[in-house]
Amino acid sequence: MTSSDAVSIHDLQKHYVVGGETVKALRGVSFDVPVGDYLSIMGPSGSGKSTLLNLLGCLDRPTSGSFELGGVDVARMADDQLAETRATSLGIVFQSFNLLPSLTVVENIELPLYYSGRLGRGARERCEQLAKRVGLGNRMDHRPTQLSGGQQQRVAIARSLANDPRFILADEPTGNLDSQTTDDILHLLDELNQEGRTLIIVTHEDEVAERTKRTIVLRDGQVQSDKRRA
Ligand SMILES: Nc1ncnc2c1ncn2[C@@H]1O[C@H](COP(=O)(O)OP(=O)(O)OP(=O)(O)O)[C@@H](O)[C@H]1O
Fold first, then answer.
1. Dihedral angle of Cα 182, 183, 187, 192, to the nearest 10 degrees
2. ipTM beyond 0.95?
3. Ligand 1 atom closest to 17 (CA)
4. In this structure, what DSSP letter does residue 47 have?
5. CB-based pocket (< 6 A), ligand 1
6. Where do the structural domains in the chain lie, given as residue ranges?
7. 5-228 is classed in which CATH architecture?
8. Which segments constitute the ABC transporter domain (predicted)?
9. Residue 90: C-alpha distances to residues 96, 110, 141, 143, 167 (Å)
10. What is the mean pLDDT of residues 46-74?
11. Backbone region of residue 46 per phi and psi (left: phi > 0; alpha: psi in -120 to 50; beta: other values)
12. Which of 10, 15, 131, 136 is the Cys-Cys partner for 63 at CB 3.0 to 4.6 Å?
């Protein structure tokens, strides 16, 4: 790991024990992600992509191996430190949007500020700016069920930016969207990388991977290939 690495993982293993049987979902994964990188993670179903993303997103802990985020070893963090890191350094975008149906667009965008205790003065205005940034300035008081899939994903992207994280993770962010909407969402993600944020996207789609700077392919819980585009 160098100071210019956003992420450094070494020999990461994740085993699940189900009914007395051990599933080795990750079997020794190592790679570094420099600050500002735009990385896609591909691989067949069951190869360990979501497991890896859950670890990178501090949503789960590895069985063994090290994972450093911005120079800090996540595996050794206490639970409250892990929650703090998740809230302030990371933005996560999911395939199924994961918006709260009872909240409006702007309230959904504010949610990470609530969790990180940053709902202070100016928060509402900042979140309104984020809604405008993703093209939803005229939908701020709508609820998720009143929005299209693409609009809901825009809300999720705006929400991932609420704490201004350096690092954005996305799990199949366009998996539920049609091709025109997919293109709009990918354009937004490209912009986030162009402004210097580090992006890691799990995808099945070549169209998505081709826009990124580098693709890692997982197979059976290991890195099969790691290629950077010219
Ligand atoms: N919570 C869990 N408990 C037990 N086994 C799990 C759990 N999560 C994942 N697995 C197993 O770990 C392996 C890797 O799963 P993972 O979901 O990471 O793959 P994936 O590449 O994301 O697949 P997909 O593309 O189908 O989403 C699979 O064999 C899966 O059955």
1. 20
2. yes
3. 4
4. S
5. 16, 18, 23, 25, 43, 45-51
6. 5-228
7. 3-Layer(aba) Sandwich (3.40)
8. 7-230
9. 18, 15, 26, 24, 5
10. 91
11. left
12. 15
